[in-house]
Fold this sequence. Notes:
TRAPPC6/Trs33, Trafficking protein particle complex subunit 6B, four-stranded antiparallel beta sheet, alpha+beta, Muramoyl-pentapeptide Carboxypeptidase, domain 2, single chain, TRAPP_component, NO_sig/Golgi_transp_ligand-bd, 5 helices
Amino acid sequence: MAVVEHYINDNENNIDSSSLFLSQIGYRVGYSLSERLSKESPRYRDELDTIKYLCKELWICLFKKQVDNLRTNHQGVYVIHDGRFRLLQQTLLTMNKPIDDTNRLHQLYIAYSTGLIRGILTNMGYPCRVTAEIAEFGVKFQIEMNSTVG
């Protein structure tokens, strides 16, 4: 994820534009990647099956593990919890930066990751909004399918 680290060094003053840019990059990567990773898999019947495929198969390809928890309200909102989100764990181990820089770097990794998830799901036929929050025990991604997005 050198692009994230490079981008924080070049744009230290504007975290919002950096996050938007990295989210767009993540979207393009996710959109392309989902074609390659799912071309041998049949299209799934509904959005729940697609989300399960994301949580089990694709998450392993992306982050080397399955998600820890998936919750849904059965109305188009899904919450994915990853207790040891790989991208954030790597930054904690490899970074010798001040806390503020580490928090900003985490925000950029999250922005990239939400774009990645949004790109994957959009290409699989489910346009959505993806938000995330860093919690004490990992990262929670909230996915709202477009039918529920105002």
